[in-house]
Amino acid sequence: MSLLKIEGLGKSYTADKQILKNVNFEIKAGEFVSIIGPSGAGKSTMLRCINRMVEFNEGKIIFNHQDVGSLNNKELRKLRTNIGMVFQHYNLVPRLTVIENVLHGRFGYKTTLQGVLGRYTEEEKERAFYLLEKLGIHEHAYKRCDQLSGGQQQRVGICRALIQEPKLILCDEPIASLDPSSSKVIMDHLKSISTEMGITCLVNLHQVEVAQHYSDHIIGLNKGEVVFRGEGSELSAEQIQKIYETNTKDLIIE
Ligand SMILES: Nc1ncnc2c1ncn2[C@@H]1O[C@H](COP(=O)(O)OP(=O)(O)OP(=O)(O)O)[C@@H](O)[C@H]1O
């Protein structure tokens, strides 16, 4: 069943430069899909169009049978509870505790006053603990977020997305600031979120081999156009060259 359908998507921030050009793809519920491409290809813009953090200019986005472009503010707020987001720099509130940051994921379900006063139900607090435990960081629940390592902070970011009870999680370069071992922990968690919890993951990545290892499908973007769509095993050196406009050996930093 299709969860997300992108049809003829176009985006430009300024009149002189088209960032996304006629982008088309479809993602099924529960799939793990990566977007790869060189810096500036439009990967972040693509993700942000899906929840309308960035307004797109052309085409259609259908998410969970809803036409995203036609939603009013109230409908958009509701839609965003179904779409979690994980960021490269975690986007946590550093001076607040881990558990408070996780509970921020419930904001979309609250009135502004409830959110500002930090009014959460016992059930929400239990769920936050359960998620922290699942991601192996429950012993840090009452620490300030800025006392945690990058990998731990990213796990808090994932818990905050999960407590929204999303159907889709958008991850914008979730491992770009992490060392290889923390990166593996994060990617393993994201993968099990899709396979065990059935939550669809759309992940922007810089590392081709990571995308190949974890993804059901890969989308290759070059200058805002989809130049590859397929499984990791179908991604040949020639395809990689088409995406990055460079030889694969040039992608290895020695
Ligand atoms: N708010 C904005 N206003 C104007 N131009 C923007 C804005 N955001 C992004 N751009 C431009 O859009 C292009 C695509 O940027 P985007 O961040 O989507 O690419 P990316 O593939 O995610 O790059 P990276 O891998 O470096 O994060 C770039 O040329 C960028 O300068």
From TrEMBL:
The protein, known as: Phosphonate ABC transporter ATP-binding protein
Keywords: ATP-binding, Cell membrane, Membrane, Nucleotide-binding, Phosphonate transport, Translocase, Transport
CDD domains listed in its UniProt record: ABC_PhnC_transporter
Record keyword Lipoprotein present: no
Pfam families in alphabetical order: ABC_tran
Alphabetical list of PANTHER family matching this protein: AMINO ACID IMPORT ATP-BINDING PROTEIN (PTHR43166), PHOSPHONATES IMPORT ATP-BINDING PROTEIN PHNC (PTHR43166:SF6)
Species whose genome carries this gene: Psychrobacillus soli
Entry-linked InterPro entries: AAA+_ATPase (IPR003593), ABC_transporter-like_ATP-bd (IPR003439), ABC_transporter-like_CS (IPR017871), ABC_transpr_PhnC (IPR012693), MetN_ABC_transporter-like (IPR050086), P-loop_NTPase (IPR027417)
Gene from which the chain derives: phnC
Domain ABC transporter: 4-248
